[in-house]
Design brief:
heterodimer, A: 73 residues, alpha+beta, SH3 type barrels, five-stranded antiparallel sheet, B: 370 residues, alpha/beta, Rossmann fold, five-stranded parallel sheet, four-stranded parallel sheet, globular
């Protein structure tokens, strides 16, 4: 039930945005976040953005993993 | 899909699992890890990770499926509300089919009750606006991830002066449940995989007792297969290298140490902690949420009186023990005999993220059946 997915913010009107994943776009309430802008990725749960996805952290996770695994080879 | 596909990359996952196996070479004990969250359970089964992890690692499913831990008493009261005149029950889909003591919301809906499934709490508020002559009761079942959404729906209802919207609050909190599990003498866990989205809201501070007081490692983990494997890698590293146990974050792209302050403020404004009953874990101190007095006009239990039948449990269903991690569905004589997703006897079979539902759907590809 705590399912939430990363979706790209493509429209903002006051506290409501439209977020898209692939071809699917849904209305998303933005009231639980501070500043957001178009192109941000949001973690969306039951119609609400509960966090702005940290793009740098996302890259860093993968970079560190790859380094760790290369070391092993 | 960006930020999803790269965390499902098969080759990386297999390489990392290989590295975990290497790390275990000189470690002779079995390692028992528990994933608290039902969404993790589903992801582990769906991706076949159960089968890929080395045999020394046992993964147990914990009490992190909100529908599963909701006791019959709550369901019976919801069913009683649904029988009231001029009442619409609004709910998330999962709880619709869960059997209470003698009925279910699904069965009542097939009779005279008006029960509507929504995706978002905001849909419940809209239902209240569209039906001013009916009482709308939203069944709020969930953890910290969902609590701020319910809080916001109540605040919006207040601002719009909606007198016919109320919430039947069955919300529960994860850290007190973990404390309850650790204190249970029957359960021995070497490491916890902590829920990524609950932690997106609450951060990591509420989990510090796990390592500080109980010396057990834990890691806040995302939900894609690579996230979970990396979470397990982090735990195994802490255990095998005898590091000082700590709470780590694997899911850094969503979880910050302090959580989401706006969401936490909202929870505090609308709710207060209360003792709560959990299926399987009994009553746990301050492990639930109730609506504060300042918002009592939106509290269904304050506003609407209802007679509820005496609560009965099905003694053959071992859902409670499964939620504590001391049994698995294959130990249940109802499992796959009379209990199935089409005819669920207990909550763990109904919820799509319940342990029994996961075993039913995927266990034949798991190690347990080999």
């Amino acid at each position: 039930m705590c399912l939430a997915v990363p979706m790209e913010l493509v429209e903002i009107k006051d506290n409501i945005g439209v977020a898209r994943m692939g071809e699917v776009g849904i209305e998303v309430h933005l009231g639980l976040l501070g500043d957001v802008k178009l192109g941000d990725y949001l973690i969306v749960h039951a119609g609400f953005a509960i966090q702005k996805l940290d793009k740098e952290a996302a890259e860093e996770t993968l970079t560190l993993l790859n380094e760790l695994l290369e070391e092993a080879e | 899909m960006k930020y999803i596909d790269e965390y499902r990359e098969d080759r990386t996952i297999r390489k990392l699992i290989h590295k975990i196996s290497e790390g275990l070479k000189h470690y002779n004990n079995e390692i028992v890890l528990m994933e608290i969250c039902g969404t993790h359970t589903m992801s582990i089964f769906r991706s076949g990770l159960q089968r890929l992890f080395p045999a020394e690692i046992s993964l147990l499913s914990g009490p992190g499926c909100p529908v599963c831990v909701t006791p019959n008493a709550y369901l019976d009261k919801a069913i009683a509300y649904s029988k009231l005149q001029d009442t619409i029950i609004v709910t998330f889909g999962d709880i619709f089919r869960v059997p209470g003591s003698s009925s279910s919301l699904e069965k009542e809906n097939a009779k005279d009750s008006d029960i509507r499934i929504v995706y978002s709490p905001l849909d419940a508020v809209k239902t209240a606006e569209k039906n001013p002559d009916k009482n709308i009761i939203f069944l709020a079942v969930g953890f910290e991830t969902t609590a701020p959404l319910i809080a916001l729906s109540i605040r919006i209802a207040k601002r719009r002066n909606l007198k016919n919207y109320s919430v039947f609050c069955g919300h529960k909190l994860i850290p007190p449940a973990i404390k309850g599990l650790i204190q249970d003498k029957e359960i021995n866990i070497d490491g916890f995989i902590l829920p990524g989205h609950v932690s997106t809201i609450i951060g990591t501070q509420p989990y510090q007792f796990i390592s500080n007081d109980h010396h057990i490692p834990s890691v806040v983990t995302g939900f894609e297969p690579l996230d979970i494997v990396q979470g397990v890698y982090i735990l195994i590293s802490q255990i095998v290298n005898h590091e000082t146990p700590k709470v780590q974050i694997q899911y850094t792209r969503s979880v910050k140490e302090k959580g989401n302050s706006k969401a936490l403020d909202l929870i505090k404004e609308v709710f207060q902690a209360t003792n709560a009953q959990w299926r399987g874990l009994q009553s746990i101190h301050k492990s639930g949420l109730k609506i504060r007095k300042t918002y009592r006009q939106f509290d269904a239990e304050e506003k609407i009186e209802v007679e509820v039948e005496e609560t009965k449990e099905n003694n053959n269903c071992i859902c409670g023990d499964i939620l504590r991690g001391i049994k698995n569905p294959l130990n249940c004589k109802l499992f796959r005999t009379i209990c199935s997703p089409e005819n669920p006897i207990g909550a763990c079979m109904v919820s799509s993220e319940g342990t029994c539902a996961a075993y039913y759907k995927y266990a034949d590809i798991g190690r347990d059946d080999e």
